[in-house]
Amino acid sequence: GSFDPDRASISLRTLSSAEERDKALDIMARVLQRPLFPEAILNREKARVIAALKEAETKPDSIADKAFQKAVYGTHPYALPVSGEVASVEKITVQDLSDFYRSHYQASGAVVAIMGDVSRAEAEAIAGQLTGKLPVGAAAAAALPNVETRIAASEQRISHPATQSHILVGAPGMARNDPDYFPLYVGNHILGGGGFTSRLMNEVREKRGLVYSVYSYFLPLKQPGAFQIGLQTRKEQADEALQLVRNILADFIAKGPTEKELLAAKQNIIGGFPLRIDGNRKILDYLSAIGFYDLPLTYLDDFTRKVEQVNVAQVRAAFARHIDPQAMATVIVGAPEGVAK
User: Fold this and answer.
1) pLDDT tens for each residue of 209-260
2) ∠ at Cα 26 (25, 27), nearest 5°?
3) Within 10 A of 96 (CB to CB), how many other CB atoms are there?
């Protein structure tokens, strides 16, 4: 199983033959519909998670990510660390787990994605088997509050003995169903999501040698997930690298990409798309997202066409609507000596 700020999931890979598949599905259904939360196992898992959290508190990348989420989201649930805090994990009880299960694991909120040699009727039967006895009648989990998409500019400089500064810059970006999804997706590929072909990598690393790696991404969620730029650099050149990144972002938002950059990005994304769906696991992940985020059933069929339709004006307008370079959260862990806070 896995989880993220929006959802939890459990997956099963089994043979398609009825005998093996039915046995595996029966076990999965029992786990989903009649879970047990033995106190001894809870205590073991709490100890494991707490140990990992305490270790993370010493690592500059973890410190930066935690401070960044708080700076971007404030009191919104998206600001909370996905693995919790030491103090909150210590307080979890068996009753807490049972209550959470009853309020969140309900058939009305379940999405079942199936990939394999099954008919429509068989797929519907499997979905019913897995969800038919999930909790009903309890109050559904509260809906997420709206994210404040415009935040005040902020900068945190956090001291750390690491030899490099870890820098994160960003703000709330876009939701998964945002109509600007494809212009932002393609535009970010050009800005910092395309590896060595991106503008940030070319300007900050290749031309000036200030970093080993620099990137940008959008994390689209139910509510607007973060837009983030990240980099690591030597402490003595952290401020220079940060200012350069800010200038590149501001220029990109003001002018958008060039036609040459846009063409190269489209070719890269479209040419690499078959590798995104070249296995059952990858397709299943897409199907799960399509169901959970209520995306069009033709999403995969439409993907390359939607990318091809993006133009320079759309990228520029979409970034201008979503990203204000003067209203970004900045976190520097391992800040230059003498200026850390």
Assistant:
1) 999 999 999 999 999 999 999 999 999 999 999 999 999 999 999 999 999 9
2) 90
3) 12
CA distance 203 to 333: 23
Long-range contacts at 271-276 (CB < 8 A, ≥ 24 apart): 273/303, 273/304, 273/307
CA distance 181 to 168: 22
What value does the mean pLDDT take over residues 109-136?
94
**C-alpha 302 chain-centroid distance:** 22
Q: What's the CA gap between 164 and 59, in Å, rounded?
A: 12
CA angle 282, 288, 292 (to 5 degrees): 150
Burial class (CB in 10 A: 0-12, 13-18, 19+), 271: exposed
Q: Dump pLDDT digits (tens) for 252-292.
A: 999 999 999 999 999 999 999 999 999 999 999 999 999 99
* Mean pLDDT, the chain, whole residue set: 94
Strand partners, 329: 154, 170
Window from 241-245, 323-327, 337-341 with minimum mean pLDDT: 337-341
Closest CA to 230 of 197, 262, 191, 265: 191
Condensed to tens digits (0 to 9), the pLDDT of residues 30-40 reads: 999 999 999 99
Q: How far apart are CA 333 and CA 336, in angstroms?
A: 9
Walk me through the domains of the chain, giving residue ranges and CATH numbers. Answer: 2-131 (3.30.830.10), 154-333 (3.30.830.10)
Sign for the pseudo-dihedral over CA of 64, 66, 67, 70 = positive
Reported pTM: 0.92
Q: Answer yes or no: are the C-beta atoms of 60 and 166 closer than 8 Å.
A: yes
